[in-house]
Design brief:
mainly alpha; 6 helices; transmembrane helix; VanZ-like; VanZ family protein; Teicoplanin_resist-assoc
């Protein structure tokens, strides 16, 4: 039951965040001129650093923060506790990079917007940092809460959440439906008729 609540909350917050990001990044800008597209990695970041520390922190920070919530919302929408930390990080960062790349490609059709490869790099780094800062600690806390005496029924199991009301046997013993079902049936060879 708790997994359903986390999944619903994660999907709702993820939807709201993506709508907000779309509104911020895909609306036309009314500008007199537009800079050229930046297809050279780190060139825009170097240009931001040349503007001074305050402006550099503002511009680089905006790039890091724009999609950073995806680093937390994507695993929350997945609602699994027993996931390898590196697999979760790779999956979340890859999804964040694809969302960022999609936004940059959609911006090519929006007046006043240009493609910037550094935006993809910064957005992806923001997703990774948010994931590393929040998700492992949050999952560990939930695992401790679920395994504590009196924890919520339907706690974590390998591959996700268990079915509510179904309890695992104590002592590691497997019930018949939990274990292997036996040998795979073989079909005997049949000769071909003359």
């Amino acid at each position: 039951m708790a997994a359903i609540r986390y999944r619903v909350a994660g999907l709702a917050l993820l939807s709201v965040h993506l709508v907000l990001v779309g509104w911020l990044t895909l609306r036309p800008l009314d500008v007199m001129w537009v800079t050229a597209a930046n297809l050279e990695p780190l060139a825009g970041i170097r240009a931001d650093l040349a503007l001074g520390p305050v402006e550099a922190v503002r511009r680089i920070g905006e790039g890091l923060v724009l999609l950073a919530p995806l680093g937390v919302l994507l695993p929350l929408a997945d609602a699994r506790l027993d996931v390898a930390p590196w697999a979760s990080l790779v999956r979340t960062v890859a999804a964040g990079a694809l969302v960022s790349l999609g936004i940059e490609l959609l911006q090519t059709a929006v007046p006043g917007r240009v493609v910037d490869v550094d935006a993809v790099l910064l957005n992806t780094a923001g997703v990774a940092l948010a994931h590393l800062a929040v998700v492992p600690a949050f999952r560990a806390r939930l695992r401790r809460r679920m395994s504590a005496p009196g924890g919520t029924a339907g706690g974590p199991r390998a591959g996700g959440w268990s079915v509510p009301g179904r309890k695992r046997p104590q002592g590691g013993a497997l019930r018949r439906e939990d274990g292997p079902q036996g040998a795979t049936p073989r079909i005997p060879r049949v000769g071909i008729a003359p």
